[in-house]
Amino acid sequence: MPEYQNIRTGRHCTFALHAHLVFVTKYRHKVFSDQHLTRLEEIMRSVCEDFEVELVEFNGENNHVHLLVNFPPKVALSKLVNSLKGVSSRRLSQEYPELVRHYWRAQRLWSGSHFAGSVGGAPLSIVRQYIEQQNRPV
């Protein structure tokens, strides 16, 4: 089963939890150059390490970024997202003051919303079928 080659273990559980995250800039302003995206990846890898989360893949364009993360069950995705967006916004505004002109009014780099989708494993229809076919105790 190649999709389960990256199973992680914790003290009391075994898990393979992946999420696809997408963050969009405020007002979809075209803010990022390749240099900004490279720095964003470094910042987000550091935040992920603090949460014991693996940043499997990162990429983006001038107004949004995509992340594929492998996270332990103890991590609330909402807290991870808030930290990723907050720390990256703060650090980029400190390191690249010229970016502030793109979001001066709201004092935020990122839109207030984000996308988070679970990925990996069997499709829901297969899981549902598997559960339905389990023998019930008599």
TrEMBL record:
Pfam families for this protein: Y1_Tnp (PF01797)
GO molecular function: DNA binding; transposase activity
Underlying gene: tnpA
Stated name of the protein: IS200/IS605 family transposase
Record-linked InterPro entries: Transposase_17, Transposase_17_sf
Entry coiled-coil feature ranges: none
Classification via SUPFAM superfamilies: Transposase IS200-like
Domain Transposase IS200-like: 14-134
GO biological process: DNA transposition
